[in-house]
Write a structure and sequence with these properties.
Length: 410
Amino acid sequence: MKYILLIGDGMGDVPVPALGGRTPLEAADTPTMDRLAQQAEMLLVRTVPEGYSPGSDVANLSLMGYEPERYYTGRAPLEAASLGVELAPAETAFRCNLVHVDRPGDGRLIMIDYSSGHITTGESRQLIEALQAECGNDLLRLYPGVSYRHLLVYRGEVPAGFTTVPPHDHSDQDVAGFFQAYRQIEAFPPLLARAERILADHPVNRERQRQGKRTANAIWLWGEGKRPAMATLEARFGIRGGLISAVDLLKGLGVLGGLTVVDVPGATGYLDTNYEGKAQAALDILEKDDFVLVHVEAPDETGHQGLVEEKVRAVADFDRRIVAPIVETMERRGEPFRLVVTMDHYTPIQRRTHEDWPVPMFLYDSRGLAVPSNRTYTEANVLAAVQESGQAMLSGAAFFRRFVEREVHQ
Ligand SMILES: [Zn+2]
């Protein structure tokens, strides 16, 4: 048996006036999903447990069968895994943004830009390497990542009640209070002060200034956590496989779940992504292994940007360029497979942010074992089908067991 989990990030939505009151899933042309969904079983899954914020990290962790209550320790440990950085038990990972701040001189600290003008990876690597050379020691290590997104590993105690905030939630706001909170960790104030001195003087920043670009004049630490104690999917369910995504968080989940993480050239996380490359990579994995997860980011991005036509296109592309080629090839290969199409969370166009509502999905079995829904895949159809069947809402872990464990669907 082959298990195929296809995730359109943020694909769910509410009726959009510009679409005549339809959602993008209802408006988009999705012949393959329509065909499969009618023969499939529909499920409603709570990917974001009560009290968790509906991030892609928590929601996708759920979809992979790991209870966030038990396994979610923060965003940075997932990013560490995707960078290949192993965390020792005594170590805590922090996301380290290169940011641009302003100090007007009255005690305020204004977060101007969480991304330092989307600084390039080449530039930021030089900055982070300079910081590591000057400030790295037994307690603190810096690792370069992509663009403004880097990693700090701290070997020491993080006091109870220590909290940080993501800089992108505080653009143009006074963050002096949040900055003060770093004082609870003795090693941080000297690190932050020294980092600002080194950054101010660095040739990369002088050149950016000359070109009229925003400099990276400070670091901001957040998203901290220890390595989650995740057993691999192979250890838990006896399945081996791979994960395909353009997004670091997802790749980190794949590493921690023991999956082969495939880097597909041209996978961008947007409408211009290399869909064909991703579908082919999934089919390659399925030639030898049991399981593949394909994650497509474009529906979420277009939702955040509030772009109606683009979100409809992202959903149609997901159907035509991911779902269709994978299904057609699997049918040609003639090997039985179970396939799920879902989203991790809603990203409604009108709200432009994630919602923690239960996600609609369908579970198709090529052997035709499921009681067919006779419905196409839309938010309302899944809700109606689930209500009609009296089926309970599932947790992510319960969904995953139902997906991959043979005995529950005999
Ligand atoms: Zn997401």
